[in-house]
Every structure is written in structure tokens, then in C-alpha cells.
């Protein structure tokens, strides 16, 4: 089993690799939005990203899903009154996200 320090190191490496493939700047913008707001639905994210980029809601959902499942820095919470998921930044990774996004 990995120690908390090893887990943070692994998250940091995954995040750097994810951002290294960002040709348009959209991934960095997505993470910046999460750093600022911390709790969003896919529709909220799509509306904000669509102001600067031409992107489909399916592409946004795919990016957010990748960040939540493969990188592991987001938590999804189901909205009590519906099927809409609310994605939230895991607080223990906020500092790592902020540092990496600001250096890239």
C-alpha cells in the first residue's frame, strides 16, 4: 500500500503527464476553473469553457471523467434531486493542482 506522500507524488506525475498533452490550453483552463470554483456540474464547466473554446458537452464530460477517474483529484457527488453529478476538487490535492497549473 502506498503512503500518503507516495500517493501525492503519483497524482502529481499523472497531472503533469495529462497537462503535457494539452495543445490548445483547454485542459489547463479546466483545471484553473476547478481551482477557482471547486464544485461544478458538467453543464457549468461547459458554459465556462465554451466562452473561450469551441467544445462539445461530451468532450467536457470526457475530460472531467478522466480527471476524476484516472488522475483521482476530483470527487463526484450526485445531486439529491436529480441525476446531475457535481464534481468537487479533493482538498488534499488542491495545493498540488495550483502549483502545477501555475508552472505550466
What does this structure look like?
The protein is of the alpha+beta class. 61% of the residues lie in helices and 12% in strands. It has 5 helices and 3 strands. It has a 3-stranded antiparallel beta sheet with strand order 1-3-2. A hairpin with a 6-residue loop joins strand 2 and strand 3. It is globular and about 35 Å long.
For this entry, give a set of tags.
104 residues, alpha+beta, 3-stranded antiparallel beta sheet
Helix content: 55-70%
- Number of DSSP helices? 5
Could you report the average pLDDT, rounded to the nearest whole number? 93
User: Could you tell me the number of beta strands?
Assistant: 3
- Quaternary status: single chain
Coarse shape: globular
Regions with little confidence, pLDDT below 50 for 5+ residues: none
Largest sheet: spatial strand order = 1-3-2
Reported for the largest beta sheet, the result is: 3 strands, antiparallel
Beta strand % = 5-15%
Distance between the termini: 30 Å
Structural class: alpha+beta
* Structural Rg: 14 Å
Elements, N to C (H/E): HHEHHEEH
Amino acid at each position: 500500500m502506498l503512503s500518503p506522500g507516495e500517493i501525492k507524488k503519483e497524482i502529481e506525475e499523472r497531472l503533469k503527464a495529462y497537462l503535457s498533452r494539452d495543445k490548445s490550453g483547454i485542459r489547463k483552463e479546466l483545471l484553473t476553473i476547478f481551482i477557482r470554483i471547486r464544485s461544478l456540474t458538467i453543464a457549468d464547466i461547459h458554459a465556462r469553457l465554451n466562452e473561450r473554446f469551441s467544445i462539445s458537452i461530451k468532450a467536457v464530460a470526457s475530460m472531467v471523467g478522466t480527471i476524476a477517474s484516472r488522475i483521482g483529484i476530483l470527487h463526484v457527488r450526485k445531486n439529491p434531486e436529480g441525476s446531475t453529478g457535481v464534481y468537487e476538487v479533493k482538498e488534499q490535492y488542491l495545493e498540488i493542482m495550483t502549483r502545477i497549473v501555475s508552472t505550466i
